[in-house]
Amino acid sequence: MTKLLGVIGDPIAHSLSPLIHNGWLQDMGFNATYEAMQVPPGEFDKALKTLENGDCIGVNVTLPHKGAALQAASAVSETARTIGAANTLTYLGRSQWRADNSDVPGFIEALGQLKPETDRVVILGAGGSARAIVHALSASGVSHTILNRTVSKAQELASELGRNIAQYGSLDQYKDYIDSATIVINTTSMGHAGELLDLGDGSDRLFFDISYGKISAPQLQLASDRGWRVKDGLTMLVAQAAFSFEIWFGEMPDMESGLKRCHAALEAAS
Ligand code: ATR
């Protein structure tokens, strides 16, 4: 019997997760299929009920349902509980689900080796994605500053998850903070509005934008022109997918092949 996996979100049509996971399922010979499941806000629990049968192994969950996924689970990992969001549910049978958060290990994997003694990170934005990143940096002992358009949200995030090593400030003053940073991470949705930040001279420091494709391209180009080493969000997307896959199957898939498929799909679409 073919098993079912998928990603629940709204919107979901442009998700690369089915491409990534179905590629791995085929490569590794699992008899399962991974589908995009469009579920409007407020209908998450109803949708989950339809999956409570022997066919479903688990689902990824994305906006706007990451909080609802946590609420629906009877078992919750410590990371998901701390962040207040789950992106991976595993069906345990008898209407019971376990919630995990693979965004955190995905982020750490994508960012690469951190040096808590010398790294100073500036995070732009204080939304849902920034929560996972602040949690990961705090747990790794890396000092960081959260800058947000709405300063009170940066302040809240720093005090809630920053473990005394997070500072906060206004996005308006990003130039003052970026000078002393070794890594800058953009989690804002400014790219969607076509707004760009002039980060100044990069001097081979890292600029990591968690968006990808057309959304992040102009900002990454600008940063690269100014001497920053740049990274887009595809590695993080593939890495969180790989950690979810490992939760469901107990085996780590090949991230490189997932990344290649995503690059090919984005190129074909452009
Ligand atoms: P995600 O889950 O991807 O983090 P989100 O929770 O909607 O998305 O958060 C979006 C982030 O982008 C927020 O930090 C938001 O700032 P506010 O808290 O002030 O709303 C930021 N953001 C969105 N549009 C922006 C813009 N035009 N300029 C600056 N920041 C922006």
List its salient traits.
single chain; 270 residues; alpha/beta; six-stranded mixed beta sheet; six-stranded parallel beta sheet; 12 strands; 40% helix; 22% strand; binds 2'-monophosphoadenosine-5'-diphosphate
Write the layout of secondary structure elements.
Elements (H helix, E strand, L loop, with lengths): L2 E7 L7 H12 L3 E7 L5 H6 L6 E6 L4 H7 L2 E2 L1 H6 L4 E6 L2 E5 L2 H9 L8 E5 L3 H13 L2 E6 L2 H11 L4 E5 L3 H5 L4 E4 L19 E4 L7 H9 L3 E3 L2 H16 L5 H15 L1
Parallel strand pairs: 1-2, 1-3, 4-6, 7-8, 7-10, 8-9, 10-11, 11-12
Antiparallel strand pairs: 3-5, 5-6
Bound molecules: 2'-monophosphoadenosine-5'-diphosphate.
2'-monophosphoadenosine-5'-diphosphate (ATR) binds next to helix 6.
User: Ligands in the structure?
Assistant: 2'-monophosphoadenosine-5'-diphosphate
Oligomer: single chain
Quote the distance from N terminus to C terminus: 37 Å
**Overall radius of gyration:** 19 Å
Estimate the global geometry from the Cα principal axes. globular
Percent of residues in β-strands: 15-25%
Number of helices: 11
Kindly state the percentage of residues in helix. 40-55%
**Rounded average pLDDT:** 96
Describe this structure in words.
This protein is α/β, with parallel strands linked by helices and 270 residues long. It is 40% helix and 22% strand. Helix 10 crosses helix 11. The longest helix has 16 residues. It is globular and about 55 Å long. It starts with a strand and ends with a helix. The structure holds 2'-monophosphoadenosine-5'-diphosphate (ATR). The site of 2'-monophosphoadenosine-5'-diphosphate has 17 residues, from helix 6. 2'-monophosphoadenosine-5'-diphosphate (ATR) binds next to helix 6.
